[in-house]
Amino acid sequence: MTSKNVVYVSVQKPVSSSLFSQSQHLKTPYPVYIRLQWVDFANVVKFRVLSLSYFEKLLQEPYPGVVINNNPITDLVNTDLFSILAAVKQREAKTEFGIDYLVGFETEFMLLQSTEPLVAAGHHRSSAFRALLTGTVVTTVMQKIADSLRSSGVELMSYHAKQGPGQYSVSTVPLAPLEAVDALVHTHETIRNIASKHGLIASFAPRLFPESAGNGLHAHISVHSTQEGNKHPDKLSQYETSFLAGILDHLPGLITLTLPISPSYRRMRGRIRSISTFVCWGVETRGAPVGVKDIGSPSSRRFEFRALDCTANPYIALAGVLIAGYTGIKSGQDLTIQDLGCIDAAELDEYTREALDANRSLPLSWREARSVFIQDRVLQSLLGQEFVTEYMRANMVFPFSFFFFWQAIWTDLNCLLSM
């Protein structure tokens, strides 16, 4: 994901007014239906289809939520839509420190011809010309994805081939956190649907092929404060430093939210790893859980959070990351872990890692991550105990569903989770 010297500004749009204004542009000569969509704890996208006329009537009701029938729904809370990320302390960060966040996402996925047997839609190198030859189905799919995102209002930054079999990456521009995740969910649904329309399967599974890199979801996060003035070139600001320190401090427990199922940890093992197994960071370091991108360009400098994949609920995952960073800013936390540069911490000996303060291991399994998360009282208190209890209960159920899926080799993620 590249955004050098391109300046983006955080502008938070009121959700309710946005809904009303958008409804005015839905009038067309032909029938229009509205897909009312939501995402559950397991990142299963669910929806119901409403007629445009009924949807407009619902918008006129004096209630902040949308009720689609008269049946009691006990597992949904009718509340301020921005409370989805309220625990992030986003408003407190703005009030106390004048901080705004911008978030952009880079999604990796694989296009498959079939799942039984597992056949990728091509083999290529990263950014290879032959991966997008004119007239091929894959090229058509990727072009249609780009066109569809553009027409729906999601600004595409770039797309290109990755190293794995049939693997591609789509990057969208940074937005305010909630808008960014909304756009991400729409992007993933667009990828799935267009691939399906052209006879392919889009898989976001963490690792499909043992001997190739897995699929990740990279969150690019920048921290902007009106209180710090201009950022120094080639040097992190105090808020940026503390934000990074907070994330690294809570990272071992945090990955319960960002790598929520057992297969997620396959990206951390094997001959080809996508994530380091140690708590570390580095400037332009691809293997570290957190990297710093474009450090010499204050306008586009950002953190790349790589310990994340598409099995995670992105609202919850981003909330956890921003909460962890906020704790660092709130306490003025110092960054003790040194920049690893382009070296994977796992390649260093224990003495060198200790000298860099990069000798703390990350959990290597779903069970170990849960155990560490339970011990992180700070993270739990900011997320809210009620949320933590419900999330851990849901998280306990879903990994066992993946056992049979892994035996048969990964197919479509949502199909599995909806079983």
TrEMBL record:
InterPro entries: Gln_synth/guanido_kin_cat_dom (IPR014746), Gln_synth_cat_dom (IPR008146)
Source species of the chain: Amanita thiersii Skay4041
Keywords, ordered alphabetically: Ligase
Lineage of source species: Eukaryota, Fungi, Dikarya, Basidiomycota, Agaricomycotina
Protein name: GS catalytic domain-containing protein
PANTHER family on file: GAMMA-GLUTAMYLPUTRESCINE SYNTHETASE, TYPE-1 GLUTAMINE SYNTHETASE 1
UniProt superkingdom: Eukaryota
Record GO terms (molecular function): glutamine synthetase activity
Keyword Lipoprotein appears in the UniProt entry: no
Family: Belongs to the glutamine synthetase family.
Start and end residues of each GS catalytic domain: 81-419
